[in-house]
Amino acid sequence: MLDRIASMGRLGLDVVASLGRSGRFLAGVLSGVPRPVTGFPLLIKQIYTVGVLSLAIVVVSGLFIGMVLGLQGYTILSDYGSEAAIGQMIALTLVRELGPVVTALLFAGRAGSALTAEIGLMKATEQLSSMEMMGVDPLRRVIAPRLWAGFIAMPILAVIFSVVGIWGGMLVGVEWLGVFEGSFWGNMQSSVDFLDDVMNGFIKSVVFGFVCAWIAVFQGYDCVPTSAGISSATTKTVVYSSLAVLGLDFVLTAVMFGDF
Amino acid sequence: MAQRTIEIIVGLFMVAGLAALLVLALQVSGLSPKAAESTYTLYANFNDTGGLTPRGKVSMAGVTVGTIESISLDKETFQARVEMSIHSEVDNIPADSSAVIRTSGLLGEQYIDISIGGDMESLQAGDTFYSTQSAMNLERLISNFASGK
């Protein structure tokens, strides 16, 4: 009995300690001022790996989610004879919620897990400690470009996701189901506000990008340097990122759109 | 892959992101790139504005000629005072025109429609509509019908 209570206490202490380590880790990464000349090519390389290579999955999912929204929205709205409102429904759903959230979930699965595995293997093969031996700060050389790349790439991916999704919804709604194109765009434009909807969605995706990249690099940096440790760190990255994104999304939605 | 190729691809990726944001701004939220049109302000008092909201449209013969700026309560008459900004090019609204709250479709959003009067004088900036017609209240209509009034 006492053992159980002790193990619970140890678990709690572990959680608090790892939160503290991740905070100190973040402060260390951010305080290492990136050097413009040597840091820039590293950052570009990481934006390529993290952002450009995730483009395919983001575009394809965006297209299909938009098409499903169009189809499903039409089925419901046509019962009330207001299928012209489909454009507004698709645009608001994508720009406010699905764009940032689904992109962040895909991003955690596609890019976050890869970041964790890469950094974890670097740690397991003692590349990080040999860098320190050579006087190169691994936080600045390895971690910082990856964190910044995730932070930069995620909003871009989310915006592309929304646009492709709206296009997919138009494809189904207008081209296939025959909603009048003028009312599709007109309804959308009269109900979507640039600052309230598009920019708030953008802010969400910036926050998600930061959180996902932070969790991914921290889990890699903090993992137990064995193959089992790397695999459990990769799993944790995906699980924690998804939970953090969904939880934060509720908080951000309540703050941004909750006042009516 | 050569560093230069990667840089070009990342550059294209950034451009694609910016272009997507531009599409969201212009095509989806209907933000117009030209400067705000010059407008003048008119007022109208209503007994009941129903579901009228700021940023709603003001139309004349179905053509949008302005937007609703704000809706506030006049504490002396207990009426709603609606501030509208009308495009400057529509500067010859007859002074005895009336502002009517209508609904687009059965359940659509509400807007203000200006019914044209016949006066030679026209409304100037800051003027108030003399006659108005409040929002049609579906529930009141039904209860009137049910009680046979």
TrEMBL record, chain A:
Subcellular location: Cell inner membrane
Lineage top rank: taxon: Bacteria
Gene Ontology annotations for the cellular component aspect, listed alphabetically: ATP-binding cassette (ABC) transporter complex
Record keyword Cell membrane present: yes
Transmembrane segments: 47-71, 147-178, 198-217, 238-257
Protein's membrane topology: Multi-pass membrane protein
Pfam families in the record: MlaE
InterPro entries per record: ABC_MlaE_roteobac, MlaE_Permease, Permease_MalE
Keywords linked to the UniProt accession: Cell inner membrane, Cell membrane, Membrane, Transmembrane, Transmembrane helix, Transport
One MF annotation (Gene Ontology) recorded for this entry: phospholipid transporter activity
Keyword Transmembrane: yes
Function: Part of the ABC transporter complex MlaFEDB, which is involved in a phospholipid transport pathway that maintains lipid asymmetry in the outer membrane by retrograde trafficking of phospholipids from the outer membrane to the inner membrane. Probably responsible for the translocation of the substrate across the membrane.
The protein's assembly and partners: The complex is composed of two ATP-binding proteins (MlaF), two transmembrane proteins (MlaE), two cytoplasmic solute-binding proteins (MlaB) and six periplasmic solute-binding proteins (MlaD).
Name this polypeptide is given: Intermembrane phospholipid transport system permease protein MlaE
TrEMBL record, chain B:
Domain Mce/MlaD: 39-115
GO molecular function: phospholipid binding; phospholipid transporter activity
Superkingdom field: Bacteria
Name this protein carries in UniProt: Phospholipid/cholesterol/gamma-HCH transport system substrate-binding protein
High-level lineage: Bacteria, Pseudomonadati, Pseudomonadota, Gammaproteobacteria, Pseudomonadales
